[in-house]
Specification:
Number of helices: 10
Distance between the termini: 58 Å
Shape: elongated
Strand order of the largest sheet: 1-2-3-4-5-6
Radius of gyration: 29 Å
């Protein structure tokens, strides 16, 4: 049994690593297409894109690990069934229960790795991604703008009809400057240009041929100009709504502290406006932050558990008759695994969306898919171990046949 366990683990690890490399590579390639456009079209430096590239890897691993676990186990046992090795093992008195030891060890390893990714790498990845994107906007602020829409730059709103991302030239520009509070300033110009000064670490918006509308206390001022300059400190470009309270960027202890803080604030039923980490929010917004923080904390542990479950689901679905495997090949196992994972992830995503709206309890949304999938996987394994089924496809065919016969008998009755 020790030799058999090592043999099964070797097969599963081989297909798991192949699947993990394929899925991670595919997801990264899809994202790289967008990142490449920033380099080519908007002049962002390759080093900054590399930082963004590294930061998004943990978010891909969170999805790729359970998917690769499911497909790795399924493809491994599909190969063993195709070569009749599982048939020989079972004819030699080795039950499917004996397969649970190596698969359980593999599931434990994947679960620990997934937990590390979810608890440590995921918040680090999101925090690094946020900082990397901010550095891109600070050093090459033109790349963070989109033409034809209103762009929010801290307390400054900028609109440009056309943007040349190579030269930084702006055409038909409108700037709404609210940095002075009550003294609001609106500038309209025909041309403009964004220039970054690396020495002083400031960004200057150079405007030409325009009009500045300014409100000074109780007076209104309208000034025509041929050239004008607005200086912006890059630190002002940070989004205040993300000031230390983005749940996905917080580590588990910080997330728990934030949840406890939200709960204390919500305990005061008479208060309708709150000051949260320097941000004024209503009770409705605070409740939304509270729910999202609880969902984020629950996901840190429910998704790694899902990675463990997928190993047993792969075992249950991977055992098939040699005839089925030879007829359909490994592609059948891969397609079935993808369908199962898509169904699971869709149910999980819908549950999270409903929990975010407060329609269902958060623990139910996060753990019900895991509990249902676990029960289904071990029920199928019980059917296979007791030889009531020889494969899942056979069991499905038997149930379909019985349902069809019941339907026919009901139609025959007068």
């Amino acid at each position: 049994m020790r030799i058999l366990s090592r043999y099964i683990l070797k097969e599963v690890l081989t297909f798991f690593l192949i699947s993990l490399s394929a899925f991670t590579g595919l997801l990264l390639v899809l994202r790289m297409l967008k990142l490449t456009s920033l380099i080519i079209n908007r002049g962002v430096e390759v080093g900054q894109i590399a930082r963004v590239f590294v930061a998004i890897i943990p978010t891909f691993l969170e999805i790729a690990l359970p998917m690769s676990t499911l497909l790795g186990v399924m493809l491994a046992f599909s190969r063993l069934c195709g070569d009749s090795e599982v048939v020989v093992m079972r004819a030699s008195g080795i039950s499917i229960v004996n397969f649970l030891k190596p698969i359980g060890l593999f599931a434990l390893i994947v679960g620990v790795v997934s937990l590390f990714v979810s608890v440590s790498l995921r918040p680090w990845g999101f925090a690094s991604l946020s900082q990397a994107l901010f550095d891109v906007a600070r050093s090459k602020s033109i790349s963070g703008l989109s033409q034809g829409i209103f762009n929010k730059l801290g307390d400054i709103t900028l609109y440009a009809e056309r943007i040349d991302y190579r030269t930084g030239e702006l055409t038909n520009v409108l700037v709404d400057d609210k940095r002075a509070g009550a003294q609001r300033k609106i500038v309209v110009s025909q041309r403009g240009r964004i220039v970054a000064d690396e020495a002083t670490h400031t960004i200057s918006l150079l405007l030409a041929d325009g009009v500045a509308h300014e409100q000074l206390e109780d007076r209104y001022s309208r000034t025509r100009f041929t050239s004008n300059s607005l200086s912006v400190d890059p630190s002002e470009l940070r989004d205040d709504t993300k000031k230390g309270v983005v749940a996905r960027e917080l580590k588990v202890p910080q997330l728990r502290e934030a949840i406890a803080h939200y709960r204390r604030l919500l305990g005061d039923e008479t208060q309708q406006s709150f000051e949260v980490f320097g941000e004024a929010v209503s009770r409705k917004d605070l409740l939304k932050k509270f729910r999202r923080s609880r969902i984020e904390l629950g996901q840190r542990f429910s998704l790694p558990f899902a990675a463990c479950i997928m190993a047993f689901v792969g075992l249950a679905l991977g055992i098939m008759s040699p005839r089925t495997q030879r007829t359909w090949g490994a592609g059948f196992a891969g397609l079935l695994g993808l369908i199962v994972f898509v169904i699971y992830y869709s149910v999980f995503s819908v549950g999270v969306a409903l929990a975010d709206k407060g329609s269902i309890p958060i623990p139910l949304a996060l753990w019900a898919p895991n509990i249902i999938t676990t029960c289904l996987a071990f029920w199928i394994l019980h059917k296979l171990a007791t030889e009531q089924w020889h494969s899942v496809s056979e069991g499905v065919q038997n149930y379909c046949r019985k349902a069809f016969e019941t339907f026919r008998s009901l139609r025959r009755q007068p």
